């Protein structure tokens, strides 16, 4: 039989003297893990036993908690437990019991690690768990990232020292040490996918390969090594092609489309993960939809992804955001004459009468001269609404304001902030973009109105 203490030590997952939270459910796997960890004498580990009571099986769950507490006492180790109504949590969050339980457990383990100053969390996933995870993800549909399943060293804290040890080996170890464990009665419920795979699918697959669990685990290990390489390449490409701030990741579309499709899909995943911290509910269909958006001939389009994730194409830029877009504000401001007027879009409009300059060119789209006669007060200022039309300076006939925005390549998210200035029901200025024919200053015009739109800085 494999010497499991030596096997765990050989992985060098734990530094001498460090504090480790050991997740113990009371089942065979976690009881074996705690016993093995307690025998790593050379490492002088400071172990903390953590148990989450899922409150799913009444007195059975309470008995599990008492069983683990007694084990911790026998090992003279600190014991930390918490009770979580996982069924209520699952219903409130729309999760399966398995997913809800996993989220609750890991949140608890990380909190215990934080409070105890632990630098590792040891969990008892083993080779058969790995095989089951590979099959679950294969059935649900997954690429290399998903099929690489679990690693011995997961996130910055989680460690899985038994990942290459089978369930049978763990039970042999327990029997050899004279140790007992608790059996979860729900483990035989084959309406739960993992249990169905464990009790029905894997026994069937063993008819084709008696070592199917080992082969699936080995496949996951190979894919994990490939993923490590591919993630390194993706990270390098992301640093080269993407720009990022607190709530946005953006790519230059021309440069992006020069990359292979496989790398593009990985870049999208990487960008989404940077924004949200996980890729839950993001599948291949979403990544392909993003790629179609990037390859589209449409200059402006957007795509809503699960949660608050949003992807927007604006001409040559593809942007990812994790905040729900703000609804366009509806407001109106009456301008009765000269003065400074604060608008509800965090801008200000200033109007003052000046002598007609020899050169009407101001050098800025934010400043214009308008005729006092052609554009009499009162004015009305409001945001753009679909269907707005005006006649641009020097033109005859009207044009949709939306077409002006498209021609000026104004991003979609900026259009709702552009103020339109009206006189006698006609647009005299699309502020900061184009002057209307109605406000034209002619050679016969005397005094004129100097109008400026300003951003208000807090």
TrEMBL record:
Catalytic reaction(s) noted: cytidine(34) in tRNA(Ile2) + L-lysine + ATP = lysidine(34) in tRNA(Ile2) + AMP + diphosphate + H(+)
Enzyme nomenclature, EC number: 6.3.4.19
UniProt keyword annotations, A-Z: ATP-binding, Cytoplasm, Ligase, Nucleotide-binding, tRNA processing
Residue ranges constituting the Lysidine-tRNA(Ile) synthetase C-terminal domain according to the UniProt record: 379-451
Enzyme class: ligase
One GO molecular-function entry: tRNA(Ile)-lysidine synthase activity
Record-linked Gene3D superfamilies: 3.30.465.60, HUPs (3.40.50.620)
Gene Ontology cellular component list: cytoplasm
CDD domains given in the database record: TilS_N (cd01992)
Compartment(s) where it occurs, according to its Swiss-Prot or TrEMBL record: Cytoplasm
GO biological process, one term: tRNA modification
Matching SMART domains: TilS_C
Binding site for ATP: 25-30
SUPFAM superfamilies documented for this protein: Adenine nucleotide alpha hydrolases-like (SSF52402), MesJ substrate recognition domain-like (SSF82829), PheT/TilS domain (SSF56037)
Function field: Ligates lysine onto the cytidine present at position 34 of the AUA codon-specific tRNA(Ile) that contains the anticodon CAU, in an ATP-dependent manner. Cytidine is converted to lysidine, thus changing the amino acid specificity of the tRNA from methionine to isoleucine.
Comment on protein domains: The N-terminal region contains the highly conserved SGGXDS motif, predicted to be a P-loop motif involved in ATP binding.
Recorded family membership: Belongs to the tRNA(Ile)-lysidine synthase family.
Descriptive protein name: tRNA(Ile)-lysidine synthase
Gene: tilS
